[in-house]
Structures are given as C-alpha cells and as structure tokens.
Design brief:
The complex is a heterodimer of chains A (about 350) and B (about 260). Chain A has a domain at about 40-260. Helices cover about 70% and strands about 5% of the residues of chain A. Chain A is built from 14 helices and 4 strands. Chain B has helices at about 50-55, 80-85, 100-110, 120-125, 125-145, 160-175, 190-210, 220-225, 245-250, 250-255, and strands at about 10-20, 25-35, 40, 65-70, 70-75, 85-90, 180-185, 210-215, 230-235, 235-240. In chain B, a hairpin with a 2-residue loop joins β9 and β10. Classes of the chains: A mainly alpha (about 350), B alpha/beta (about 260). The interface of A and B includes residues 13, 209, 210, 221 and 224 of A.
C-alpha cells in the first residue's frame, strides 16, 4: 500500500463497521467504480467487452449469489445452473408477455422467480447437510433443466427450443438484443453487479449475514442463542437464488443473445462453484477474483502457446484447462480454503507493516 | 461466603426425565431455582448434569416433566424460542463461531434483540445502521466488562482456550439473559483463568442480578461462589442445599468417595 493507516482513528462504531474503514480505500474504490463505468466503454474494443468483461461481470454476480449460500451460510449447492435457468426463462417469458415492461424490472422479477424456486429447493436443508444437501440441489439442477426442455410453453413453442433476447432500451439506449452495442450491455451488467455487490456486502456485515455465518460455523450454538435455522437457511437459499436468477437472465440477455437449456447445464453449476472456491469462500471480493480467474484462464491458455509460437489443438487446450482447474481447486481446498481473497488479505496485512514486520 | 437469598422461584424444573437408548441419563429430577441465585449442579461423570442443562435449553426435550420459567412453560419450545424467553448458555466444549471475530460472536448474542430484516440489512442505512450501532454499543460494554478489548477484532478460532471461554461467556451475556447456564466454565483452564472466571460470574450475578446455573467440577470454586448446590448421581438428585449442608450429606460423600470397604 502506498499509504498507511497509522494515525487514522475511528471515533464511532459506525465508522468502525464501514465496508472500507480507511478513507483512502474508500476513495480508491469509488474512483475505481467510476472508472469501470467510464473507461472500458470508451477504450476497450468489442472483443474485450464481449469476450471478457461482460461474462466476467455476469459470472461475478452469480458467484456472489452462490458465495452467500455456500461461503457465508455454509450450504453447499450444485443447483446454480438450474436457478440461473429459472432467471433466464422467466426473463424471456416476461419480455414476451409484457413487451412494455422495463428490462430492469424484468431482471429483478426474474430474480424473484428464481428466489421462489430456490426457497422451494432449500426446504430439505433443514434436515440434510453437506454432501447430501449437495445431492438434493443436484436434483434441482436436473429437474429444472428437464422441465425447461420438456415444457414447450417456456420457449413460447419455438421449434428450435431456444430463447432469444428481444430489443429493449433503458433511457433510450438499446441494452439487449441483437442491436445493442457491447458497451451498452457492459454498462448494464456493471450497474447490476455494482448495486448487488454492495447489497451483498451490507447483508453479510449485518444481522442477516451474521446469522448465516453462525449457522455455517456451529448450527447448534446458533440455535441456542436464538437464530432460527430453517428461516435463516431458507433466506440464504432465496437471496442466493435471486442473484443467480438475475445472473442467468443477464447471461442470455446481455451476453449470449439466445440460448438453450444447454447453457445452464451442470457444468455451469460447477463453473460457478469453482469460482467461489478459487476466489474465496465467504468473501464478496473473492467472488470477483474467482470469476476473473476462471474467465481469463482459458483466454490466457489460448493466447500463450500462440504467442510462444506453439501450435496447440483446441481439444488439448481444453484438457489443460480442466487439469489446471482441478489442480487449483485441490490446491485451494487443501492449502487456502479462503482462496484468492485470503491471499489478497495476507498480502495487505504484510504490506501494512512492511518493511518492519514487527 | 454463601448467603442464601430466598427470592421467588424463577425457574421450576419438575420431574424431568431423559434417556438415551437404555441409559436413563436424567430421571425425575426436580429443582427450584430462585431469582438471582447462583446454583451449582455437581456430580460424578455421567451423572446427567449436562443432559439436565440441555433439557433446560431445549437441545433435547425431556420425556417427562416440565420446565417453567416465570410461569411460562418452556418444555416443548425450540432452542431458539427458549433463547428468546431469556435463557442463555455456554457449552462444555466451547461452541463459538470460529470463523468470526470476537465482536461478531458477541453481536450474535444480540440477534434476538435486533429487528433488522432483509430490506433494512440490504440498505444498511438509516434505521438499519442505527440498530447495528446501538447493539454494538451494548456489545462493547460487555467487551469492556470482560476485559477483552484487545482481541475484539481477532477471529475466535485463533484465541487461546481460556480466552475462548471468556468470549463464550460474553456471547451468552450479550443476550441479557434472565437465567444463565454455564457448563463447566472453568474446565481446562489454569488457576488464574479460573479466578478471573469466578470473579466474572460473581460480578454478573451482582451487577445484573442474573440467575446462574453452573456445572463445575472444582469443588473449591463451587463451595465458594454458589448459594445452592444440587448433587446428581446416575441421573438422580441425591442431595441439595447450601454448600455446607451438601458437603456433610452422607450420600454425597458416598457418591464421591465410595462406601467404606468392609473387611
């Protein structure tokens, strides 16, 4: 860090409980958010926006959602893809049924639909834990995808079985559909992830987040001090699914343009789970780091052999990608369960005292 | 030292029984706990002391009998509701939230007194933030009382055992309970920590008039700080009274020392 926190005293509990207690951090983060809104749309080319930044923001949102459930509340879920699909299909149905409805409202309502489904599949969590719960959420994943495949109503009886994002505008700018520019879609995705990251941060530093972590760390003790397990777990499932639902809707409307159920299969659930594990369980920042890592790694692997002059087949490259993911997940689970976010934190702690460690 | 204050009965334990498989852990135990009393439950290992505490805090529901706090039946309530009625406890093998800081652990003790719902928590603004700050102030008072200011931001898992015991007491105190159940608060601590803990227990009782039910093995401490002692053996109550009475009770001596070998 180029600045020190020495001499910065907190004079109220409110300032001690702030997200960024240090003034410089606060200024820096605000500047970074503003820069994120302004700079990439002006500077970055369509490839950067479309292939890297937009999916990064969307997956970061999904990862925050899963992190609330798995990282904070300790409930392992493999149903992320399914809940994202609920969001995407709800958004599609809503835009076709109510063409005049604002796209922002559509996204939020799709999130609510996913939250309702999430609540439903969260009910078993009162009785079953750990791997057994993971299997129950796996059932949600397969059931939901099966449902969207089987019932043609969800795709408005399209013969291809795909859902397509129509043109929708916000403040006169087209943000979804084939005519939307990458920059407009990027700003839209960024706005959503910014607001919801802030909301997530507020949740986890307050009463609700503490009750989640209490259930995660010691469920019996949590109950004894008055945390109601079913209500707390269901809330985690609901809010987590809301995030995943919005991310699912964005995936189709802001990134893919059109999609089938294949876009939300079990691999999607694992991908988001990997982001959460590598990024850091129980960290909002970690969700961003994990998403960035997993989006960037394949691109890096495509570019690296190319720039070294090596010819690598796509299949081989995919294999290497999977091997690296697998290795890293093992590494993080064993060595650093709190992931990249923890590494970042350790780095900060070290720098705080550098160059005199004692 | 033991001053018998005979206030009104606050907690009534009536004929409580609990068995696990074929083992009768607690059988038909009745105890009247007076308001503001420090009551110790003693007995050899396996006497059913912790099971009785678990029945009071509804970790288990007793098979027979009732537990009544100030005229309200707690017997069939969920543990969370029992906490809401004003019963807090600590555990024999520390059950803190290890990944969280000391402040957050204590803030969880305020959980039942806080009203912030999802929407207010999401905004963390206005009333939501005011409530957090207000309860943080209560927690800081307890931190101050237990002299753990220096470790308030440390994750609990990284603290030494004695301090964890103290933090756990703090979490229970943060509830501002009417009745505080302490399961071996001094188990596994050194002499100094034991003295600190005894002092805290007396101070809590003194300052807030909290009723305290205590399980402890250290007879010195039990005899010193408690006003009333209940002795359990093999799930049954074999004696109760003031420390002096209990110490002289023939069945207590038998349970602890065994019968004289007949030659």
């Amino acid at each position: 860090m180029i600045y020190r926190e020495a001499g910065r005293f907190k004079t109220s509990y409110a300032s001690d409980q702030a997200i960024f207690p240090i003034v410089q951090d606060r200024v820096f983060v605000r500047a970074a958010v503003v820069a994120a809104f302004v700079v990439p749309p002006l500077v970055a080319g369509d490839y950067w926006l479309q292939a890297i930044l937009i999916p990064f923001l969307i997956y970061a949102l999904a990862a925050i959602g899963l992190n609330l459930l798995t990282g904070y509340a300790g409930q392992l879920s493999l149903g992320t893809g399914g809940f994202m699909a609920v969001g995407a299909y709800s958004a599609f149905k809503l835009t076709t049924a109510f063409p005049r409805l604002s796209i922002i409202a559509v996204f939020l309502l799709s999130g609510l639909a996913a939250a309702a489904i999430g609540l439903l599949f969260g009910i078993p969590s009162l009785r079953i834990k750990g791997f057994y719960l993971a299997v129950a959420t796996l059932a949600a994943q397969f059931f939901l995808i099966w449902l969207f495949n089987k019932v043609a109503w969800f795709t408005n009886y399209a013969s291809s079985g795909t859902i397509t994002a129509p043109d929708r505008t916000v403040l006169g700018v087209t943000v979804t559909g084939p005519n939307a520019t990458a920059a407009a879609r990027y700003v839209m995705a960024l706005a959503f992830v910014t607001v919801f990251a802030l909301v997530a941060k507020n949740l986890v530093r307050g009463r609700i987040g503490r009750s989640w972590m209490a259930i995660r760390d010691r469920d019996i003790a949590a109950e004894i001090i008055g945390v109601r397990p079913l209500r707390t777990k269901l809330l985690a499932f609901g809010i987590s699914s809301f995030y995943c639902g919005v991310a699912g809707a964005e995936l189709v409307f802001l990134y893919l343009g059109s999609a089938e159920t294949l876009a939300f299969d079990i691999n999607q659930s694992f991908l988001v789970l990997f982001m959460v594990i590598i990024g850091g369980l129980g960290s909002v920042l970690g969700s961003f780091l994990g998403a960035a890592f997993i989006i960037l790694l394949p691109i890096f692997l495509t570019r690296l052999p190319h720039s070294l002059g090596l010819i690598m087949s796509v299949a081989l490259q995919k294999q290497i990608e999977l091997m690296i993911f697998g290795g890293l997940i093992l590494f993080f689970l064993i060595v650093e369960p709190h992931g990249l976010a923890r590494l970042w934190q350790i780095g900060k702690e070290k720098l705080r005292l550098w160059p005199f460690p004692h | 030292m033991a001053v018998v204050t005979s206030g009104p009965t606050q907690l009534e334990i009536r004929g409580v029984s609990k068995s696990f498989g074929g083992v009768q852990a607690v059988s038909r135990v009745s105890v009247d706990v007076q308001k503001g009393q420090i009551l110790s439950i003693i007995g050899p290992n396996g006497a059913g002391k912790t099971t009785l505490l678990n029945c009071i805090s509804s970790v288990f529901h007793p098979e027979t009998g009732t537990i009544v706090l100030e005229g309200q039946d707690l017997t069939r309530l969920s543990p969370a509701r029992v906490a809401g009625r004003g019963i807090a406890r600590t555990f024999q093998n520390i059950a803190l939230f290890r990944g969280m800081t000391v402040v957050d652990n204590l803030m969880l003790g305020r959980h039942i007194h806080m009203k912030n719902g999802v929407l207010r928590s999401m905004l963390y603004w206005g009333p939501g933030r005011r409530e957090e700050v207000e309860h943080r102030r209560v927690v800081e008072d307890i931190i101050d009382f237990l002299e753990i200011e220096a470790i308030r931001k440390r994750p609990v898992g990284s603290l030494p055992y004695g301090l964890q015991k103290r933090v756990e007491l703090g979490r229970a105190l943060a509830l501002h309970p009417k009745v505080l159940l302490l399961d071996e608060p001094m188990g596994g601590t050194n002499h100094e920590e034991k003295e600190d803990m005894a002092r805290f227990i007396l101070d809590v009782n003194d300052e807030w008039g909290t009723t305290i039910i205590l399980i402890e093995h250290d007879m010195g401490v039990v005899m010193d700080i408690s006003q009333h002692v209940v002795v359990l053996d093999l799930g049954e109550k074999i004696a109760e009274g003031t420390p002096a009475e209990v110490k002289a009770h023939p069945q207590v001596i038998k349970a602890y020392l065994g019968t004289k070998a007949t030659v």
